[in-house]
Amino acid sequence: MRRLMLILTMALSALWSQPTLAQSRSQLGPLCTTDTTPADQQIDACNKIIALKVFSGGQLATIYFWRAVGWNKKGNYSQVIADTTEALRLKPDQALYNLRGSAYFDKGEYDIAIADFNDALRSGPPSGTIFHNRGNAFRGKGDYAKAIADYDSANRLSPNAYTLLNRGLSKQALGDLDGALADINEAIRLDPSLPSGLIDRTVVWRAKGDLDRAIADGTEAIRLAKAKAPTNIMTPPGSVLITAYLHRALAYEAKGDYPRAREDFKATLEGVASDAGSKANQATAKVRLSLLTDAGAPAAPPPRTAPSSPQQTTTSTPAAPTTTKPAANAGRRIALVIGNGAYQYVRALPNPSNDARSIAKSLRDIGFVVTVGIDLDRAAMQTMTREFLREAARAQVAVVYYAGHGVQIDGRNYLVPVDIQFQSGTDVTAVMMDMDTIMAGLDDQVRTNILILDACRNNPMAPKVASAGASRGIEGEAGSGLAAPTSLGAGSSTLGAGTLIAFATAPGQVALDGEGANSPFSAALSRHIGTPGLEVQQMLTRVRAEVVAATKSKQVPWSNSSLLGEVYLAEK
Predict the structure, then answer these.
(1) Where are the domains of the chain?
(2) Counting Cβ atoms within 10 Å, is residue 422 exposed (0-12), middle (13-18) or buried (19+)?
(3) 21 DSSP 8-state letter
(4) What is the pTM of this model?
(5) Between the CA atoms of 453, 454, 460 and 462, what dihedral angle is there, to the nearest 10 degrees?
(6) Which of 464, 449, 431 is nearest to 501 (CA)?
(7) Which residues are within 8 A (CB) of 383 and not within 5 positions of it... i.e. 6 or more apart?
(8) Which CATH architecture best describes the domain 312-568?
(9) Which of these, 501, 507, 513, lies nearest to 481 by C-alpha position?
(10) Alpha helices of 333-473 — where are they, by DSSP H?
(11) What is the pLDDT of residues 446-479, one digit of tens each?
(12) Closest to 304 measured CA to CA, from 392, 400, 402, 374
């Protein structure tokens, strides 16, 4: 996260001259207003000062600020926001806006964080710290150009290793690996004791395919993180070590050293995660660990093509490169394509099998190694998905396409196998595929992930609603729908860096199965997905326009993206 602290500009010395505090100021004052005080002691001391009710205005705002610092050390960002909001009510101050914006950032609420950082910049002199933190929020939103501009401003005002590291990460996100490496190397030169620099360089080495260097840097990052606690009090507790273990684990897995990868994934899960990034890292570690420890875990790197079965076909063709501008992004590209229509206990759908075969052919034609599953029951669907997630560890681009029934329960998306039975009193989520699990398993900064769902996102417990034509919602159930996260980087389950999710229909609506051989969405997608030189989001815009026209506006495809740069599925 690498946020920077801006101490309140208010004079604190006058605070302790109040007669009421004559006997307690030697203990309560320093404990409350010293950034090295342990969090619980700091909060307790500030609580006692507030309880005395002798301060008001700016002086009371100062106490609330320092109590917020204590809450920040504990990773309790809701309390940070509450205390800084009260302090701002008493006396607006640049440092208060910065601290509250940083708390919103750690909660993944980037737009609100940016608004607070804007207020901070308006309420005081130019500050490299605030430019740096606003740059982080822009980076969280995937707006890397604005992030780099803010890091440039921060570096001019107050150069530091953290700013160089975050600028390097933004360059890496845009595909400028050499520029990223230059920034990270300079940051490490400025502060060789900083584990964050080595973690970032681990990511770049993995992106370059130099796994031995990635592992070496990850090992040194872990050593430094264990030897010295973060000196920046704005760094979320435990986040550095969690991140270091995860990235070394991913490097070990990509190399095929599964025993060491498993140990590092376990170590990732042992940390205490308080911020959105650490929680996402642990979600990824949990899925990757399960992939390496279950009965199907490989003893050595799996072959490029999985064996076929009656419910699965895998086709390999020479891979054409996927281009991520401004740098070329060539590498192995894989796809999982599933079409479920022959449902046994809910309304069957005629087209998903046709849709899956059409999309699979389109992806093969542009160089993807495609695994196809038709009418999968729960066991087959789980096995195929887990094999695909294992293979993704060595891929540059991973595409998941699903056609069939889908539901939303308690804010989570589920894909429905053909043997599903919705029965009262049973846990239906246990017999479906959780999309959050798939996303967490794919979450990785060095891979582009594209998930395409031609499915309705219904809640099977909701009342029945009418829909126009046959739809991919569960019959008799209804359409409260589910939107993808407002920001893929904001969820506690997955960061989603480099991820695009495309839905066949807008939030709260149903996806039509279609009256022809294919659904309206899949028919349009298969026509455009292989267009040479068409950027993937522009491709989805064309698909959206075609579907809206074909359905007379009854269905509007929808997508959310945190893609790292422009992605081209087919060469120009």
Answers:
(1) 217-293, 312-568
(2) middle
(3) G
(4) 0.71
(5) 100
(6) 449
(7) 296
(8) 3-Layer(aba) Sandwich (3.40)
(9) 507
(10) 352-365, 378-392, 435-442
(11) 889 999 999 864 444 343 333 334 555 554 443 4
(12) 392
